[in-house]
Amino acid sequence: MHSEILMFGHQARTKNCFARWAVDAVKETKRICHPTVATRLLDAFLHLILVMVVPLFSETEWKRRLNGLPAWQPDCAPTLVVVPHPDDETLAVGGVIAALRMMGADITIVAVTDGEHAYTENEGLAELRKKEQTRALEKLGVAEHKIVRLGLTDSGVATQEGDLVARLGTLISAETQVFAPWAGDFHPDHEACARAAASVAHKVGAKLISYFFWTWHRGTVATVEGLALRMFPLNEDMMEAKLGALACHASQLRHEPEPEILPENLLWPARMPFEVFVL
Q1: Distance (Å, rounded) from C-alpha 189 to C-alpha 170?
Q2: Residue 52: pLDDT band by 50, 70, 90 thresholds?
Q3: What is the rounded distance in angstroms from the CA atom of residue 71 to the CA atom of residue 158?
Q4: Which of 85, 111, 203, 231 is most buried (most C-beta within 10 Å)?
């Protein structure tokens, strides 16, 4: 059984289709294993894929493509940020969150999961990551009472997508500015969050803005070709807040004896002096 699961990992890495192969792995694992064993193997499998990420495009190549994008400014409006895992709010949207709070905008963070399956050794990890996220958001100017925690299953959001749509439906109105992952962001939880946010935003007429993270590591320039990409420049104060928030996610930057989820080679997008969105 282990060899079959690891085969999926190899295919996901070599074919650059993490999210699609992860879904296939879920089905195959359930077919060949007892449910309890399947859950444990799936957790290990998903962790294996994440720590095996080898970016297809270099930082230099991506920056060459992204530099010179048209500049964009978010509205100073009621804002809701859909966050699949603790740290996504910082990695992809930290600068915008800090900027909007400096402008006085009201921001609600929807923490979809607690990131409890980031590592195979995960006892107490959910509570730790919630605390890290709370501290990070404080650095960005968002108080704890503005975090809505849904507690959906890390690495299993797609199986609870209906619940997510229902919860977002109570939080989003036509006046809401919604930030959510891009629909092709190479992680099943990100993609499920994108679909749910798009469904609700479309239904009520809310403005939807999409953000990236895994695309910079699992995609190529061709992946984003044709998208309406825009750049939000970060000033010194925004960068200081964002980097301070990133440091709060210590469990993702170091977690011995397992390899960290966010090694140094994956952090360059979070340190760029701008953030990229799809309008």
Answers
A1: 20
A2: low
A3: 33
A4: 85
